Amino acid sequence: MLVLSRHRDESIIIGDDIVITVVDIRGDKVRLGIEAPSQIPVHRQEIYEAIQREKARDAEEGQA
Questions:
Q1: Which of 18, 40, 56, 57 has the most CB atoms in a 10 Å sphere around its CB?
Q2: Is 0.90 topped by the overall pTM?
Q3: 4: CB partners within 8 A, 6+ apart
Q4: 17 φ/ψ angles, rounded to the nearest 5 degrees
């Protein structure tokens, strides 16, 4: 894992077309802005995991 320090309004670039910017810092919470092409899905981890569980459930029901 790469760990970087950033201040508010500073960014991290991933590849040529993904920009993550620190928008705000309040206490122990950090707000991030993410710019990515529309064909690249961007989700919070818990939402991504829920989507994966749903896909697995659908696949199991399709095999039955």
A1: 18
A2: no
A3: 12
A4: -140, 15
